[in-house]
Design a protein that fits this description.
The protein has a single domain, classed as 3-Layer(bba) Sandwich (FAD/NAD(P)-binding domain), CATH 3.50.50. The protein is 36% helix and 29% strand. It contains 12 helices and 19 strands. Helix 1 packs parallel to helix 5 and helix 2 crosses helix 9. The site of flavin-adenine dinucleotide has 32 residues, from helix 1, strand 2, strand 3, strand 8 and helix 9.
């Protein structure tokens, strides 16, 4: 019989979880703090482990319509522009894993998810509701939500899913008082109209530029009309939120030694925003009848482009555990057991990638040699464990 499920947070993870659970016959209420769904203008890479789940949920047409499929990643030196290596993406990777590696605007992904959610009668969204407390008693979960006007509202369910992002109130209310630690770096983000970008970088593939202590990633979004740029550099203090505006000059100064085409791309950005990078080692994805999912459970440093993908994986595994176990508490225990090794491995690989991307001196030289020797296919093969993941893998 279908359960009543409360989902806190309507980000990538919460919306995907609602869809996956509704497909299993559960009725879902999503409580979202925001009152509107405007997303910060930025892009997201969706690797095959994520698109596989989205396709199963019927989102292929909507996602493909707005996305681009890069043919590969060109890896270059941030300072000289010299080629370091490459990684194969495109149709060959899709053939290998049965689902594609795509890049898409966050707003477009959110629209695809929201349209699908709104098309399911089993899902209700309550916006302007902020979680303030959780009580579990007699096999039920009671959430208290604060409304914008300061009223308190209760939401009762058979189980709850905390998908409320890196600063998760659910995680804190479950007794995990840890605060994600600022890594000392920020991701500066910008969108450059394709016609303003240097011709050599306005191509339908992904660029990765590696330099000491910094890197830049760019790829096309909005069906190729925009180039999404993410430039990671040290910053002494964190900035607040997803899209804090930052001075253009501060970004350009952090990359003053960039090779000419990259410098031209950075200079072409009309505006920059910043997001502070933070880490929190995964511990356990919930307790009792409350599951944690996505960044609420395991924020991932963006050096592997996997935070959103893991949230999407979580949603699929949660739905599959609930389909296998009749007792919801046992299903959530199975979900926690299943996810922990995978998310710990992804978090650790992302941290390691950060050290490799930002290496200096002899370590950087060794990195460049290894990448050149592996070649585009060898680089893609190293990610097979990540991209080849399937929801039913235990
Ligand atoms: C620079 C950068 C680049 C990245 N690139 C990639 C990439 O290429 N690929 C990838 O897979 N991942 C990437 N990520 C990671 C990815 O963006 C996140 O992991 C993902 O957005 C997490 O989704 P989520 O649903 O868990 O959380 P969020 O997207 O943060 O959603 C949480 C939701 O909960 C709501 N909320 C918060 N508190 C409450 C409350 N108390 N009550 C009710 N609602 C609440 C919020 O308003 C929000 O809507 C990147 C991250 C960064 C910083």
């Amino acid at each position: 019989m279908g359960l009543a499920v409360a989902v806190v947070g309507a980000g990538i993870g919460g919306l995907t979880a609602a869809l996956a659970l509704a497909r299993q016959g559960h009725s879902v209420t999503i409580a979202e703090r925001r009152t509107g769904f405007g997303e910060a203008g930025a892009g997201i890479q969706l690797s095959p482990n994520a698109t596989r789940v989205l396709w199963e949920l019927g989102l292929e047409t909507a996602v493909r319509r707005a996305a681009c499929e890069p043919s590969g990643v060109a890896i270059r030196s941030l300072r000289t522009g010299a080629a370091i290596g490459a990684m194969r993406l495109g149709p060959e990777l899709e053939q290998l894993h049965g689902s594609p590696y795509l890049v898409i605007g966050r707003q477009d992904l959110q629209t695809a998810l929201l349209d699908a959610v709104r098309g399911r009668p089993e899902i209700r969204i309550k916006v302007g509701r902020s979680l303030t407390s959780i009580d579990e008693a007699s096999g039920r979960v009671r959430l208290t939500l604060a409304t914008g006007s300061g009223q308190a509202e209760t939401l009762e369910a058979d189980l709850a899913v905390g998908a409320d992002g890196i600063g998760s109130a659910t995680r804190t209310l479950l007794g995990d008082g840890r605060v994600p630690a600022f890594s000392g770096e920020v991701a500066y983000r910008a969108l450059v109209p394709r016609e303003a970008a240097p011709v050599s970088l306005a191509r339908p593939d992904t660029g990765l530029w590696l330099g000491p202590g910094r890197h830049v990633v760019h790829y096309p979004i909005a069906a190729g009309r925009l180039v999404n740029v993410v430039a990671v550099a040290p910053r002494p203090a964190p900035v607040e939120g997803w899209s804090a505006p930052v001075e253009r000059d501060a970004v350009l100064a952090a990359f003053a030694d960039a090779a000419p085409p990259l410098a031209a791309l950075l200079a072409a950005a009309p505006a920059w925003s910043a997001w502070s990078l933070a880490d929190l080692p995964a511990r356990t994805a919930g307790r009792g009848r409350v599951a944690l999912l996505g960044d609420a459970a395991h924020p991932v440093l963006p050096y592997l482009a996997q935070g959103g993908a893991l949230a999407i994986e979580d949603a699929a595994v949660l739905a599959s555990c609930l389909a296998r176990e009749t007792d919801p508490a046992a299903a959530l225990a199975a979900y926690r057991r299943t996810r922990l090794p995978r998310v710990c491995r992804v978090q650790a690989t992302a941290r390691r990638n950060g050290r490799i991307f930002h290496a200096r001196g002899p370590v950087a030289l060794a990195r460049n040699l290894v990448m050149a020797r592996l070649g585009p296919d060898g680089m893609a093969d190293r990610q097979a464990w990540l991209y080849g993941w399937r929801p039913d893998a235990r």
